[in-house]
Each structure stands twice: as C-alpha cells, then as structure tokens.
Design goal:
It is built from six helices and 24 strands. With about 375 residues, the chain is α+β, with helices and mostly antiparallel strands. The chain has four domains: about 100 residues, conserved putative lor/sdh protein from methanococcus maripaludis s2 fold; about 90 residues, Elongation Factor Tu (Ef-tu), domain 3 (Beta Barrel), CATH 2.40.30.170; about 70 residues, OB fold (Dihydrolipoamide Acetyltransferase, E2P) (Beta Barrel), CATH 2.40.50; about 70 residues, Helix Hairpins, CATH 1.10.287. α4 packs antiparallel against α5.
Length: about 375
C-alpha cells in the first residue's frame, strides 16, 4: 500500500469514530422520543414548556332546546261592552280612544247620552214651556212686589212675603229648566239631558273599538272589546316527536328580542289545543305580571333540562388540526403522552365538554398542550 492510500484510510477511520458536533447533540436531546404508546418527554423538556396535566372532571351538562311561543291574553278574560240603551256615544278622555290603550278598572272611558222619546211637536212644546215659565216668573215678581209693599205698611204678614219669594224662586227654576231643554233640542232634538257612564270592569286594554265619538248606537250595540292584560299566557306549539322535551325540565325561560331580558315561565294547564295539519300540540305557560309583552308577539322559549354526566377539560387542552378535528394529549405514563382524537359537544368560557373519545378517569394535558403538539410534530424541536 502506498503512502497516499495509507493516509486516506486513516482519515476515513477518524471521521467514522469521531463524536458529533455539540449543536447536533443539543438538537437530538431537544427532540422527544417516540414510542409505540406515545411521546416521551424528558424532565427538561417538560420544564421548558411548563407542562401541566389534570384529570378530567365529570359534570352534568344541561341541554337547551329553543321553541317559538305566542303571547296571548288568557282565554276567557276578554269582554265586549255593549250599549245598555240607545244614545249618542261620547269619549270621556281628553285624547281620542284607540285600540291598545290602557283603561283602569272602574274608570269611565266613554259616556252615552240617551235618546229622548220621539214626541210630536217637540220644538213647539219646548217653546211653549219657556213662555209659560217666563209668564209665571213675571207674575211671581209682581206678587212679591205687592206683598212687600203691604208688609211695609203693616197691612201684610212676614209669612206672606216669604211665600211670594218662594213662588218666585220656583218660577225662575222652571224657566231655567225650560230654556235648558230648548237648548238641548237645538243641538240634538232626540238627545236627553242626562249621560250614562261606560266603565271598564277590570284593568284592561282596548282590543277593538266598534264605535266613534258622536256616533248614535242602538241598545245592545257593541261598543268596545276589552282584554285583561294583568296576566299573559304563552302558547308553545310542540311537535309530537318533541313532546317529552318538556318532561323533567329544570328551567323554562323566554325572551322577546333581547336575549339578556329572559324571564322565567311557569307551566299551567291550558286548553287542550292542537294543530293536526302540522302535527303539533300546545303547551301553555304564564309569564310574570311585570312583563309587558303585547298579545300576539312571538317570543323565543328556551327549555333546559339536566343531561348525562360528561367529561370536561380545560379549554386550553383541546386542540384542532388543519381539518377541524379536535384532539387532546392523554397521559399514558410518566412523561408519556399520546395524542387522542375526541368529539367536542360544547365549549364555554373555561371548559370543553367531551362527547366521546375520553375515559372518565383520563389525565389530559392542559397547560403546554400547544408546545407539546409542536414537539410531537415531525421535525419538531
């Protein structure tokens, strides 16, 4: 063997047996070891990523279902007011009445001026009564003057003067009444000079008005329909297949528009109504008295009931891959972790509810899960 060949062999042997560089040794030590049951970390790697693991907790998860409900006035709590006699309707309020307006109990929100009997020569008789009353006043005044003059000459008694004064006052009252009657006939020949108040029997809202101010109505004619709004019922049509959702419900709440304004509903025994065309039956609830939902409004009804106990983990321990599949890292041994695919049922602000993929006693990585996924990935360091 020549000298050149000898030195080449020596150099090759030296390179084969020489130690790797320091950077290569550090990179090898930083990579986790992969075994059949998962990824094994060293204590230094666990310390560097601040790894923390906790046992899953079993929590009873409430299920929530949403339905659409209709606000109704309680059946049987609406009343139609009718005219007790024939007459002219007048509003009692300073502003015109309208549907939806609230009327207090026992308040007179309209009046009826009865129609007088239709006698012949009504105007002529009224003028005759005024003339007779005026003549009677004149006669009474003259009598009072004569009686007073005689009394001053001591030719008459004090009692006679008082009787003459009383007769004059009576005549003047009859004259005022005759003139008032004549004035009433001028504005409405058939109207009486009295009014009858129409009062609301309960605290209610006007659902419908069937008359106008100044309208002449017959006896028994409908005037207004009032509905009692002291309580509001909610009718919820429920499909027959979902009827059992309400059985065992812990909470039933509803809201109109604003989800933050939920109110609790109480179940009641309402009328047995159903819609056979849509295969639904109605469940009935009552809203609190302070709720001001208008009848006919549509509200969202949420039904909550306890569900099965599910494992929950801290939300930072649940990761998602590029395809949107969820996974966690489960501890299989000391510093040994395995990637486990799971199905997430619900996520709130702090916890994630796992529907399947985890046992009830599993220990899951929470803090440092993202860093562990980076180390676990091919080429991770």
């Amino acid at each position: 063997m020549g000298r050149v060949e000898f030195w080449c062999a020596v150099c090759c042997a030296s390179f084969v047996h020489c130690a790797p560089p320091a950077a290569t040794r550090a990179a090898s030590a930083a990579r986790p070891a992969h075994e059949a049951r998962g990824t094994v970390l060293s204590r230094e790697q666990a310390r560097r990523i601040d790894l923390r693991a906790e046992r899953v907790s079993l929590d009873a998860i409430e299920t929530t279902r949403a339905f659409v409900g209709e606000v109704l006035a309680p059946p049987g709590r609406s009343v139609t007011l009718t005219a007790p006699i024939a007459g002219t309707v007048r509003w009692s309020a300073t502003r015109p009445l309208a549907a939806g307006q609230h009327v207090a109990a026992r308040s007179a929100f309209m009046t009826i001026q009865p129609l007088a009997p239709a006698d012949r020569d009504v105007r002529a008789q009224a003028s005759r009564q005024v003339a007779l009353a005026a003549a009677r006043v004149t006669l009474a005044e003259q009598r009072l003057q004569r009686t007073s003059a005689l009394q001053q000459r001591d030719s008459s008694s004090r009692r006679a003067v008082e009787e003459a004064q009383a007769e004059l006052d009576s005549a003047r009252a009859e004259l005022r009444a005759a003139r008032a009657r004549q004035s009433t006939l001028s504005s409405g020949p058939m109207n009486a000079d009295v009014t009858l108040a129409v009062r609301a029997p309960v605290d209610a809202r006007i659902r419908a008005l069937t008359v106008a101010d100044g309208q002449v109505v017959a006896a028994g004619a409908p005037l207004a329909e009032l509905v009692d709004t002291s309580a509001r019922w909610v009718r919820v049509p429920v499909a027959l297949a979902e009827w059992s959702v309400f059985d065992g419900a812990t909470d039933v709440r509803a809201f109109l528009g604003d989800e933050r304004a939920r109110v609790a509903l109480a179940a009641i025994d309402g009328p047995p109504t159903a819609d056979f065309a849509n295969a639904t039956r109605d469940r009935w609830f009552i809203a609190p008295a302070e709720v001001a939902w208008p009848p006919g409004a549509r509200v969202t009804v949420e039904v909550r009931k306890p569900g099965a106990r599910r494992p929950t983990v801290a939300i930072e321990g649940v990761l998602f891959d590029a395809l949107g599949s969820a996974f966690v890292y489960v501890e299989r041994g000391p510093l040994t972790f395995e990637r486990q695919r799971v199905r997430v049922e619900a996520i709130d602000a702090e916890r994630a509810t796992i529907a399947s993929g985890l046992s009830d006693d599993a220990v899951v990585v929470t803090r440092g899960a993202v860093e562990l996924a980076g180390l676990d990935a091919p080429g991770g360091h």
